[in-house]
Amino acid sequence: MLAMTTSTFGSQANTGLVVGGNTVDNALGAAYSHLSIRPSFKKNLAHPIMALFPIKRFRPIRELWIACVSWCSVTACLCTVLAQLPLAQSPVLAQSPGTPDALVVDLGKQTRLELVHLSPGELMMGSTPEEKAWATGIEGGAQPGTERESYEGQLPRKIKVPHRFWMGRTEVTVGQFRRFVEETGYVTDAEKPGGHTQCFNPKWTSYDFRTSVVHPWEPMPGKSWRDPNFQFPLQDDFPVVCVSWTDAKAFAAWLNEQASLKLNIPAGYAYRLPTEAEWEYACRGGRQDSTAYWWGDDLAEGQGRFNISAVDFLPDRKQKWPLASAPWSDGFSFVAPVDHFGERGRNGFGIADMCGNVWEVVLDHFDPKGGHEELHTTKENYRPVCKGGNYFDVPGNARCAVRLGLAGPHYSDSRDGFRVCLGPIINNAP
Ligand SMILES: [Ca+2]
Questions:
Q1: Distance from Cα 49 to the centre of ligand 1, integer Å
Q2: Are strands 269-272 and 359-365 parallel, antiparallel or unpaired?
Q3: Closest by Cα among 135, 122, 123, 121 to 292
Q4: pTM for the complete prediction?
Q5: Is residue 34's pLDDT more than 70?
Q6: How far is it, in rounded angstroms, from Cα 12 to Cα 16?
Q7: Cα 214 to chain center, whole Å?
Q8: CA 407 to ligand 1 center in whole angstroms
């Protein structure tokens, strides 16, 4: 039931390439480059050949030749002009010929999943002492005296992502996850007997730091991705939440199991969760310096770019999140539809919501010493890493370098979601 609009990879990819919102036929693109013949063609090619024909003896041949050359020149000029038209509306393809800039996976029932192609590259993983100090200070949204674990590791260090891969352009949505469940009957961890998920308790009013801190999220049986207890209707374009690391991996496995997709996956590649390094590379959008956010260090520049704890009222209340410190409204106290912020919310790779909206679980197991260049796993008591912060988080918690370890592989929360990638198969992947 699944189908990809790009039927093959590599040099013979022949259709469904989506570039900058336009669908471009790769074969057509190749044809365009072939037809980009300059008018100088006539001058350079016609004259040396014409020297072979004396004027009087070969006049008919000469006239026929001139007519042919003229026709070809006019056609070439016309094709050159036509070739410019669609390309003028699209960003220049930075990828090698035949490499799709983006893939669109058709999940059926008008549901699609988009992935963006990323070339091999480097990033600075982690954060500077100045960034950490800001993030744990009042400006970053922390309460005085807050101590953050040194989750982000020591100084920013250069990390390589030596392979190309495709990263989900958005977080996986409710609609996409629903297609998976419809096709497979999959039951999430939260829905299993005895299962539960962390949800917002609408009876919660505020923190009381003088006494006991009552957290607004608590375990709730009966809630799940189908009903995250948001107090407002669920939408198909919301990021799916209340799904565990195990559930996220099952979604990726479903993509791989579809025969119609398998034919289109490059040799040695598979759909899976991104590694921590791949995620942070994708988050930084191609930047190779160390900044708090993908647009730089200035929080004010984040207005209109991401969904975090801002000055928006909670549903049916005249109250914002108590720790909110972004001095603007992003329009949402809970989840926002994916890619809601459009161009302004997309990083240098064109990927949306890497910071904020929902935490995104990745493949690695949490190492309190910091993230790794290669996939990091542990054998016992492993805690999946999640990245990027969420709608409830203060600005200091929604940076590129932020990382947390979840309670376990079956833990889920209405602030946590995921995105998938199409990357090289990792043999020791959990
Ligand atoms: Ca996110």
A1: 63
A2: unpaired
A3: 135
A4: 0.76
A5: no
A6: 12
A7: 34
A8: 19
* 284 C-alpha to ligand 1 centroid (Å): 13
Show the DSSP H helices in 10-58 as ranges: 26-35, 40-41, 47-50
Q: How far is the CA of 19 from the centre of ligand 1 (A)?
A: 23
- C-alpha 72 – ligand 1 centre gap (Å): 53
How far is residue 130's CA from residue 114's CA, in Å, rounded to a whole number? 36
CA atoms within 13 A on the CB side of 286: 11
Question: From the CB of residue 177, how many other CB atoms can be counted at a distance below 10 Å?
Answer: 27
Angle at 345 between CA 340 and CA 348, to 5 degrees: 140
Residue type, 235: Q
Does the structure show a pLDDT above 60 at 3?
Answer: no
For 27, how many CA atoms within 13 A lie in the half-sphere containing its CB?
Answer: 8
> Domains along the chain?
6-94 (no CATH), 102-424 (3.90.1580.10)
Helices (H) and strands (E) in the chain, counts: 9, 16
- Angle value at C-alpha 301, between 334 and 343, nearest 5 degrees: 70
C-alpha–C-alpha distance, residues 165 and 116, integer Å: 8
Mean pLDDT of the chain: 79
